[in-house]
Every structure is written in C-alpha cells, then in structure tokens.
Amino acid sequence: MNIKLNLLLLYVLFLLLNCCFGRFLVEKNSLKITSPKSLKGTYECAIGNFGVPQYGGTLVGSVVYPNVNQNGCKNFTDVNASFQSKPGSFPTFLLVDRGDCYFTLKAWNAQNGGAAAILVADDKEETLITMDTPEEGHVANDDYIEKISIPSALISKTLGDRIKEALSNGEMVHINLDWREALPHPDDRVEYELWTNSNDECGPKCDNQINFVKSFKGAAQQLEKKGFTQFTPHYITWFCPREFLLSKQCKSQCINHGRYCAPDPEQDFNKGYDGKDVVVQNLRQVCFFKVANESGRPWQWWDYVTDFSIRCPMKEKKYTEECSDQVIKSLGVDLKKIKDCVGDPLADVDNPVLKAEQDAQIGKESRGDVTILPTLVINNRQYRGKLSRPAVLKAICSGFQETTEPSICLTPGHHLANSLISNSDMETNECLENNGGCWQEKSSNITACRDTFRGRVCECPIVKNVKFVGDGYTHCEASGALSCEFNNGGCWKVSHGGRLYSACHDDYRKGCECPSGFKGDGVLSCEDIDECKEKSACQCPDCKCKNTFGSYECKCNSGLLYSRENDTCIGKYTSSSVASIWMIIVVLVVTLSGGYAFYKYRIQRYMDTEIRAIMAQYMPLDNQPLIIPNNQVHHDI
Ligand SMILES: *[C@@H]1O[C@H](CO)[C@@H](O)[C@H](O)[C@H]1NC(C)=O
Ligand SMILES: *[C@@H]1O[C@H](CO)[C@@H](O)[C@H](O)[C@H]1NC(C)=O
Ligand SMILES: *[C@@H]1O[C@H](CO)[C@@H](O)[C@H](O)[C@H]1NC(C)=O
Ligand SMILES: *[C@@H]1O[C@H](CO)[C@@H](O)[C@H](O)[C@H]1NC(C)=O
Ligand SMILES: *[C@@H]1O[C@H](CO)[C@@H](O)[C@H](O)[C@H]1NC(C)=O
To answer: What are the angstrom distances between the C-alpha of 312 and each of 321, 328, 434?
Structure first.
C-alpha cells in the first residue's frame, strides 16, 4: 500500500514535470543507404540506450532479415544461421521487428548470432522513440545487458518495410551508420554532465552507476586538470505537491518542506534510510562540487563520490553525515563551506543549489529533459549507449573539434576495455598531495595511496611480505606474520647509549618479548631490571653491585674475579691452571737442569782426558792410573 502510493506520487510528479515544462528528446544519428538505388538516401534512426554506439565513427554493413525468429526474441544458435561476416565481406546488420520482447534481448541475440549492429523496425507509424533497458526487476536474468557491445538503432516502420521488400527481391541493402554528427563538436573543450544519485541500494542500476564513476574517475580527472573538459555533476529531485505536504510520503521523502524529494531507497518508509536522507546526501555532493570548483579543483568530486560509496554504504548503516564529514575532511575540502551550502533541511525555505538543479533538469535547446537516471549529457546532448569507460570516452572524444582532441583520444585502442592511460600529458600523481587522503604510517612512509589509471585509490599495501588490512582511509594494520622491519612488529624498542634494545623477534611466533635484563609486556614497555635491588645477581659476600641499563656490574674483593656465569667470585687462577703452570715450570727446570748436567758432564770428560794427557807428559800422576793415548806418546824425546 505504502509502496504503491509512493510510486504513484512520484509518477504524478513525473508527469507534471513532463507535461508542463519539458520534452524528452530522442537522440538520433543518421543512417545512409548506399544501395540499392531505389532506397538511396539518408534516413533518421534513434540510438538505443545500451550497447556501444560508435560515437565519432561510421559503420558500413549489409542488411540481413532472418527467415525465422524475425522479432529476434529467440537466440539465433538453434536456427541455421550465423551472421558472422565472412572475411572480405560486409559486416551484417541484423534487421528485426519490434515487439514481443525487450529491445535488449533482441540486441543480445543478434550479437550472439554474430551481427555487427542491430536495426529494429518499428511496428507502427510514429515518431521514433529511444529504446531503453527494461525497468529494474522486470527481467529475472538481466546480467547480459551489460555485455551488449553492438550498436543498435530504431528505424521507422516505413523504412523497415522498404528494406524488407528490397531484400525479398534479392537485392543487397548496404547501409552506412554514421555517428559523426551524433554529438556537436564545436570547439576544443567538451562540456559534459552526469545526472546521478547517491542512493547505493537500488540494485544493478546503482551498482552500474557507481562502477562507472569508479572506472571513469582517472580519465575524467586528467581531462579536467588539463582543461580538456568541463564536467558538472547533477542530481534529480522532485517536489511534493502542496496538498500532500503533510502526508507520510512527503515527510519521509522530502526536505525543506516538500520542496526537494527523492524516492525511498527500499521503498519502505518504516525501515532503513528514507528518501530525505538521499536528498541530503545528494545535496552534499552538489555542494562538494560547488566548493571544490570554487577552489579550482572540481575534479575532487570524483574522489568524494567514490570514497563516500566505499566508506559510507547504506548496507553498513554508514550513510550518515558523520561519515560524509570524515570523507570531506580526508580530502582537505572546507567542511564549513559545505555545511553552509547544505543549510537547514528542516527550514521552510528554498535551497538555492537544489533549486538550480531542478531548473537544470528541464531541457533547453538541443537537450531534452533528464528523466532517465543515470544520464550523461555531452556538449548538451544526451549520451545514448552503455555507461562504461571505453564507450563514454569514445563519445567524449567525438565531442572535440577535429585535431583538438587530447592524445588519450588518439591512442590506438583507447576503445579497448582495459586500455591504460599512458600518455605523458595525462600523467599526474595524486598521492603526492596530502597522501591522496589515504592512510599513512608517517614514520616509515608506508602508505595506502596508489596512483592508478583509474585515479588514486586508497588500499592497504603489502610491504616486505607483510599484508596490511583495513579500510585504507583511516587505518591499516599489519596482519599475519609480524615483521620487525615494519614499526618494529608493534613491539617495544628503545635506543640507549648507541645501542638498540628491541622486544621484536624475527620469529613472529614468539610475539613481543623483552630482551634479557628487561621485564614487561614487550609491546608497550620493557623496564630495566635492577639486578642489585632485586638480589637476582651479585650475591657473593663482599661483592659490590652496580645496576646498568639492561645489565649490571659486579666487583669482587681482594683481587678475586667475578664469574657472571656462576655468580660467584673466583681466584685469579683456577687450581687446574696453577697446577699446569707448575707442571710446565717443573718440566722446564728438569729439562734445563738435565741439559746443564749433561753439558757439565761432557766438559768434565773432555777436560779430564785432555788435561790429564798434557799433564802426564810432565809429571807422573800417582793417584790415578796413567792413561796415555797411544798416538799422543812422543817416543823420540
Ligand atoms: C538458445 O536457446 C535454446 C532454447 O531455446 C537454449 O537451449 C540454448 O542454450 C540457447 N543458447 C544460448 C547460447 O543462449
Ligand atoms: C543449414 O546449413 C547447411 C549448410 O550450411 C545446409 O546444408 C542445411 O540444409 C541447413 N539446414 C537448414 C535446416 O536450413
Ligand atoms: C566551476 O568553475 C568554473 C570556473 O571557475 C565556472 O565557469 C563554472 O560555472 C563553475 N561550475 C559550477 C557548477 O559552479
Ligand atoms: C619518507 O619520504 C620522504 C620524502 O619522500 C623522505 O624525505 C624520507 O626520508 C622518507 N622517510 C623514510 C623513513 O623512508
Ligand atoms: C660453574 O658451575 C658449573 C656447574 O655448576 C661448573 O661446571 C663450571 O665449571 C663453573 N664455572 C666456573 C667458572 O667456576
């Protein structure tokens, strides 16, 4: 009941807006038939709001109208048909009839059948409409919509019939789809707008929108910084008709007394966030842009919006003012100015910023009313096609006057899904300033900021095999194996007298442990143990104890030495060493005296014989038997 009322109300507002002020412009491009002669000419077609239109380019192909499955609602794999063009021949443009299923399903089947583009022939005479994706929840399995990459075009019933007739007569129909004039490209700067919403709980459409903002951020910021583009974000709001002002619907969905409303995220007024929470956050995002733009840094909007969606999701109940304030502060933008801009949502007054947004919603000149969310407007024309980085970049590039495109547009393959921006004129490092608003460990220069082609991201790093976990903005912590190299593994350390004392062990399983001579938890503190006071050492009688940092000194009396190992005093020499010295001395003495004795003996012997021999020549030696060597006796005297 509530939901129905709610939707009905919005629908009424919607109709009011549409009927009374605005119009919805169908974005068209031209379709040129080059053959047969009877059909030659330029016709209008309407670009579908999915797939990838070839903005700035042309595509030439040959039309095929299938014999069966003519509305394209079944896949073309079970019928004997492949539209894959043969080498050297024209790509196939598959012509199907409108009706029986969603446009997107027809396009998906055509793409899988190998067609290069799909033409849908209207089933009644009318002005062309924009083929859009199905409303949320209308198809069970709509993952495929994101995968549609071929361009699509709706043609009139008349043109469709004439093409079919030519084909049935056996003629080849050649068509040139031309997107070169689909967007105006008057000068060297592209102005573009994104009509978006801060609501992150609306399913695939919201996910797709924020994923686009995240992936396009890098390119958007660089184009903006170099002055190639001027970007403005916009937010749609509705107003509550006077007679409903006091209704529950308006109270929960609107701010400023029913002036600015947004649908309830869960479509239930009794739970979760209300429509008015979404309006306030939308307002903050517009104000953020305004303040950042005034300080000459409009590109910060992309950071705010992506950071907010990461840090403050509805799912985690963080879609709040406090969380938003934190993001703003981390980006270094003046919070007070933003609060002034937001004003008081309860006041019964106009908010100039939201008033301007409502005025901008109504189409002017070449741009129709904005009624589809999200909507991208490039050079005042609504972009049609898939909201993806390569497709949008291609469209923006086609909005520059020829030869004034930035080099990012000229890089071959810039249309490839994962192409990087590698041009030197595109390089900037956002982490250099204020660390990109990311977490940082000041003492060791470890940061969660990384500059990527998607712009800067805040992600906890991996340093020296230590993985950090956290939100990347306000905290990151080393997880798993501790490393003493980072922050000393979270353990205590101190430098004293030129020496480092640390409680960190390279073996992380030990955790933090005070080094010997200290006591404590090893994390916050380790205290020097006073070994002397605690009587844990130097307990020998007459020992003198002195505490030092991390250790102690102990002196023994009477020339004894202190043995730290056994905490006792010992003599200068141990008994064993004294004994061994004595042994050496004895051996030395024995050897020396032995040698001397031998020497003496030899001398004695020599003296004895020699002298006796000489003396014996002059006198008889009575007391000893005369020994006279034979050879020394002189017989001739
Ligand atoms: C095509 O449709 C048939 C049944 O209609 C189905 O069995 C088959 O899986 C489909 N093929 C693809 C590629 O979707
Ligand atoms: C399918 O195509 C083959 C040749 O490509 C042809 O021989 C066959 O008859 C076709 N089948 C049908 C049912 O059309
Ligand atoms: C942003 O700033 C530029 C130049 O300072 C100005 O021309 C433009 O109108 C501003 N945009 C908004 C939405 O205030
Ligand atoms: C941190 O980075 C700054 C600037 O790059 C540098 O001057 C400083 O020495 C670095 N500090 C450490 C601990 O690496
Ligand atoms: C210390 O004590 C151990 C055993 O208690 C002993 O083996 C060692 O020789 C002693 N050391 C000294 C220097 O006395």
So the answer is: 9, 12, 21
- Cα 493 from Cα 593, distance rounded (Å): 65
Structure-token match 């239930």, residue found: 268
Average pLDDT over the chain reads: 80
Between the alpha carbon of residue 123 and those of residues 97, 116, 134, 382, 528, the distances in Å are: 7, 22, 19, 25, 91
Residue 148 near residue 156 (C-beta atoms within 8 A): no
Task: Choose one of 369, 384, 418: the last residue of a domain.
Answer: 418
254 contacts 275 by C-beta, under 8 angstroms:
yes
Each residue's pLDDT tens digit, 395-406:
898 888 877 778
Mutate to test the pocket of ligand 5, among 560, 565, 576 (most ligand atoms within 8 A of CB): 565
Whether residue 248 is found in the same domain as residue 348: yes
Q: Is the CB of 77 under 6 A from ligand 1?
A: yes
563 versus 6: the higher-pLDDT residue is 563
Co-location of 238 and 370 in the same domain: yes
If one compares 397 and 21, the residue with the highest pLDDT of the two is 397
Strand, helix or coil for residue 388: coil
CATH code of residue 66: 3.50.30.30
**Where residue 299 falls among pLDDT bands split at 50, 70, 90?**
very high
What distance in Å separates the CA atoms of residue 547 and residue 187, rounded to the nearest whole number? 82
Rounded to 10°, the helix 300-311/321-330 angle is 140
Question: Among 151, 149, 175, which Cα is nearest to 162's?
Answer: 175
Q: What percentage of the chain reaches a pLDDT higher than 90? A: 25
Point out the ligand nearest to the CA of residue 74.
Answer: 1
Taking the centre of ligand 5 as the mean of its atom positions, its distance from the CA of residue 16, in whole angstroms, is 101
Query: Is residue 171 a contact partner of residue 73, using CB atoms and an 8 Å limit?
Result: no
Q: Rounded to whole angstroms, what are the CA distances from 207 to 49, 200, 210, 214, 373?
A: 17, 7, 5, 10, 12
445 C-alpha to ligand 4 centroid (Å) = 6
Other residues' Cβ atoms within 10 Å of the Cβ of residue 533: 10
Same domain, 503 and 449: no
Q: What is the pLDDT of residue 600?
A: 79
Are the C-beta atoms of residues 552 and 546 closer than 8 Å to each other? yes
Strand partners, 455: 452
Return the half-sphere exposure (C-beta side, CA atoms, 13 A cut-off) of residue 504.
16
User: For the sheet containing 476-479, what is the strand order?
Assistant: 462-463, 466-470, 476-479
Using DSSP, state whether 65 is helix, strand or coil: coil
Q: How many alpha carbons fall within 13 Å on the CB side of residue 297?
A: 15
| Residue range 588-609, pLDDT digits in tens | 877 888 878 877 777 777 667 7
Q: Bridge-partner residues for 546, per DSSP? A: 553
Pocket of ligand 1 contains residue 75 by CB under 6 Å: yes
- Amino acid, single-letter form, for residue 348: D
